[in-house]
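Q: Could you fold this chain for me?
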Amino acid sequence: MNKIIIKNMTKSDVDNVVKLEEASYGKHHWSKESFYNELENDLSHYYCAFDGNGNLLGYCGCWHIFEEAHITTVSVNPEYRRQKVAQALLIKLIDDCYQEKIKYITLEVRESNVAAISLYDKNGFVSIGERKGYYQDNNEDALIMFTENIWYQKFSLLYNQNKKELSQKTEVIYG
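A: Sure. Below is the predicted structure, expressed as structure tokens.
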């Protein structure tokens, strides 16, 4: 069974996060300053996922604004994709939303990012529109994805099912 340890992102994580950001997104990635600013932002919630040896597997972040959370980033080291890292990070973000009494979660995702869209679909997100030319590197459109109210039974049942499936395949430790 895989082990994933999820912790709050700290300033000491930023160098490795930026390396992963660059590996994932090429030269159009967030800067160290962007992550430092996010860590100082009271609305922001950022997490890193590590293996049992302390290697960075992925990271994610979102903003909590009143009754809505906006996922700003989710990235997984290419070597660890399809090993439930993104699912574990997404579950952590949703857990936070329940704790903070958030009702809705939204995000943008590249139209070409089939793997991410599939992950979000599996977790109850639906496409409600698109942002034309959203991504600066290639002018690609973004899908706008949104959840229904996460307190509704349909969403909470799906969330609990996904959380249970994750726990059966992967040991996730929230530190």
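A (continued): The chain has one domain: 2-174.
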